[in-house]
Amino acid sequence: MDTIRRCQMKLLDDRKLDLSVTNKQTVTDLINEISRQYHLNETEYFGIYYEENDERMWLPSDKKMLDQEIFKRDSSPPVLYFAVRFVFKSFLWLQNATTVMLFFLSTRYSIYRGMIDTNDNTLFQLAGLVVQAVAGDYTNDEAAINIIKRVCVLPKRVVDRNISRRYCEDQIINQYKGCRDFARGLCVVKYLMLAENLPSYGSHYFLVRNKNNVYAYLGISFVGISVYNYHDRETPIKIYYWRQLENLYYRDRKFSLEVHDLETTHFLSSSSIPTNTSTPETDDKLIDAIHDPTTQ
């Protein structure tokens, strides 16, 4: 007889699904089930994770759902997240407007939560594009401020390091005014192009410690593996590009790699990701497709 467990799945468009999963379902099965709701074909970029100590814990895709650690240790329904897991150099390689929209929503969430680091000026630019995509052209400050509050583009950490919340809202409104006549699809494309230039875009962070018991973060992305100070995830101490690396090894929470012409680096930790190269040109048809109201 099948074992059934309940869980809540949070989607990228803020919907929440109460799901029943069985002991026969793998993570891939569940990803495919959710993808059908979006009519999503490019499922290979997506994954399911849960949050623990402000870190994303991704579920291995080939493993049965009920064999996952979070189901084993807790009898209450866990909260899971469906999100973009694998990111490459340019979203313009994507074939489908729906996939681009989900990349946009996932990037927005990651920037708002601080999973992708950005300076304040860039954040205000990005926020202005979101407001234009959601509300269309600027009408007045009051309406703009209401939209800023509703769409979650101004994190508390940014307000705390500036003069006031109103100052931050004014900066976003100035950027928003500059987006006049931008269609929704153009806002999405400009947003992702700007986000892709952020140093931490596409990085997955893992807390590690070396043989001297010094803690740090590894940022693994399509660029390579970056090492960050434990207290600063904005500026990497070192970047090891994939072309420099060989003999990556991970077992029993021990991770090591060999770097061409450099010393071998050892860390104790947790996982890994793919790569890509050149960037295609922006496709006007893609912008039109994203702007289409049927693309959710």
Automatic annotation (TrEMBL):
InterPro entries: Band_41_domain, FERM/acyl-CoA-bd_prot_sf, FERM_2, FERM_central, FERM_domain, FERM_N, FERM_PH-like_C, FRMD4A/B. The keyword Transmembrane applies. Keywords: Membrane, Transmembrane, Transmembrane helix. Residues 269-296 are annotated as: Disordered. One of its GO terms (cellular component) is adherens junction. Residues 269-280 have a biased composition (Low complexity). Residues 282-296 have a biased composition (Basic and acidic residues). Residues 5-296 form the FERM domain. One of its GO terms (biological process) is establishment of epithelial cell polarity. The chain crosses the membrane at residues 79-105, 214-231. This is FERM domain-containing protein. It comes from Rotaria socialis. The lineage of its organism: Eukaryota, Metazoa, Spiralia, Gnathifera, Rotifera.
